[in-house]
Design brief:
Strand order of the largest sheet: 1-9-6-11-5-4-2-3
CATH superfamily of the largest domain: Cupin
Number of helices: 11
Structural class: alpha+beta
Largest sheet: 8 strands, antiparallel
Order of helices and strands: HEHEEHEHEEEEEEEHHHHEEEEHEHHE
Helix content: 25-40%
Shape: globular
Strand content: 25-35%
Radius of gyration: 25 Å
Oligomer: single chain
CATH class of the largest domain: Mainly Beta
CATH architecture of the largest domain: Sandwich
């Protein structure tokens, strides 16, 4: 699958002129589009314990309710014919075949991609006018949906007094588009928008993109550095002088404590890159089963490569690398390994692999051990 960009636009132009700047409507983005999932099948997914789902209902323009899944059949069969939306997240992580539909958006780095969410709404259904803090591509999968867009980013929106939903109190659309199956709409962060179903088969797919917050980065980096510092490194004060008031924290002490923190917050590029890789791949790591997932030895695990012509990547796992010359830092769900550059690139580039190709790229004992570990932890799975 590839995006059928409008004339004069390609991936580079999109990133330069639209990404995080302004919306873009792409008519017939997927000309041969065929929706592989029905509303009934989506409803079935919302019944599952391990699949994140939400049911949003509009009682009136100022009254909305939110119910988190798993839902039950009585709730679904008792829904009205109007005024609700059913949303199911992490589709590609739980239904691995759906990773195919994320592939067209991988010109944006994998660590920025959050998930594929699919929603269904009968005629008139929506989730209300709102803004998002992330970029999103909205693909119309079946039926039609009308999108009303604001005129620019909203920094401090006024919201309805609802505890669980962030619905705009006063939304004035500046643009309106109606999307049909195969149409694609890109929205940058903080743009006010309101999508309304225009028939009873309306399904919309959302490919959302995450961005780490400064607060989360500082907190996580502090924990990471703390794990690297000797616990016996204590505050020294051999020059301590008697104080008039023992309760005072003196400017001299504050200066020494400040310098102590600065000395340990400054890191070399290698250590910082290790933290970055761990941090950016840690989220969404439910597919990483841990070192006790399989007690087979490396030789037995590597025999999988001999016995199985193809492997596939667990779509719940996040992979990334920081390039080196021959060896690089390779990250899997928050853990760091050393890997050959060529092997790391191949593992991160694809979701399905020829076993012989992986063996040919694993030129060192460390690379072969890495492949064994990935098979052991079910990050690499035999294709059945």
């Amino acid at each position: 699958m590839r995006i059928n960009w409008p004339d004069g636009i390609d991936e580079a132009v999109f990133l330069r002129d639209y990404w995080q700047k302004k919306p873009l409507l792409i008519r017939n983005a997927f000309p041969d589009w065929d929706n592989p999932l029905s509303p009934e099948e989506l409803a079935g997914l919302s019944l599952e314990d391990d699949i994140p789902s939400r049911l949003i209902r509009e009682i009136s323009p100022t009254e909305w309710t939110l119910q988190h899944g798993p839902l039950d059949e009585a709730t679904l069969t008792g829904l009205p014919a109007y005024g609700y939306s059913l949303l199911v997240s992490d589709i590609e992580k739980l239904l691995p075949d759906f990773i195919t539909y994320v592939q067209p958006f991988r010109f944006i780095p994998d660590w920025r991609i959050d998930d594929l969410m699919i929603s269904y709404a009968p005629e008139g259904g929506s989730v209300g006018p709102h803004t998002d803090q992330y970029d999103v591509f909205l693909l119309q999968a079946s039926g039609t949906r009308e999108w009303r867009l604001g005129d620019g980013p909203v920094s401090d929106p006024e919201l309805l007094p609802l505890p669980d939903l962030k619905i705009l109190r006063d939304f004035k659309p500046a643009h309106t588009h109606t999307l049909s199956p195969g149409d694609l709409l890109y929205l940058p962060p903080r743009l006010a928008h309101h999508g309304i179903s225009r028939d009873d088969r309306c399904m919309t797919w959302s490919v959302g993109f995450r961005a780490p917050s400064a607060a989360a980065m500082v907190a996580d980096f502090g924990r990471f550095l703390g794990s690297k510092i000797n616990a016996d490194t204590l505050y020294p004060d051999p020059d301590l002088a008697a104080q008039k008031n023992p309760g005072e924290i003196t400017p001299h002490a504050i200066g020494k404590l400040t310098q102590m923190l600065k000395d340990h917050l400054i890191t070399d590029e290698t250590l910082f890159a290790e933290w970055v890789g761990r941090f950016l791949t840690e989220a969404g790591s439910s597919g990483w089963l841990g070192p006790d997932a399989d007690d087979s030895d490396s030789a037995a695990l590597l025999a999988t490569l001999e016995e199985t012509p193809a492997l596939e990547r667990c779509t719940q796992s996040r992979l990334a690398f920081v390039a080196g010359e021959e060896q690089c830092s390779f990250f899997v769900n928050g853990e760091c390994f050393s890997a050959g550059q060529a092997l790391a690139e191949a593992l991160c580039r694809d979701y399905r692999y020829n076993s012989a190709d992986l063996q040919a790229l694993a030129n060192t004992r460390a690379d072969r051990q890495l492949l064994a570990e990935l098979i052991k932890r079910q990050v690499l799975l035999p294709v059945e």
